[in-house]
Amino acid sequence: MTEALFQEPSFAYVNWSAIKTADTGKKWVEDVTNAYNSEAFKKYAHETFPGYKYPKIWGTDHSAHTDTAAKTESADAPETTEADAQ
What we know:
The protein is mainly α. The chain has a domain at 22-70. Helix content is 40%, strand content 0%. It is built from 4 helices and no strands. The longest helix has 10 residues, at 27-36. The radius of gyration is 17 Å and the shape is globular.
């Protein structure tokens, strides 16, 4: 995904999950939700699928989840000069 020509600007194609109304509030639903939103799973997802569009609830700062994200961002950033800073 990091080398895609174009990515959809929306979150319409992010993987979604659903539960039956009858299962709302059940322990297993809470467990699955907590596991999916855990820092460990976010780290796994960012390392395994770089450039993928992640759930909006995860936020946009992915650098906390991978070492490669910070390296990629700094490598892709344009060089700045002292004149640019003024």
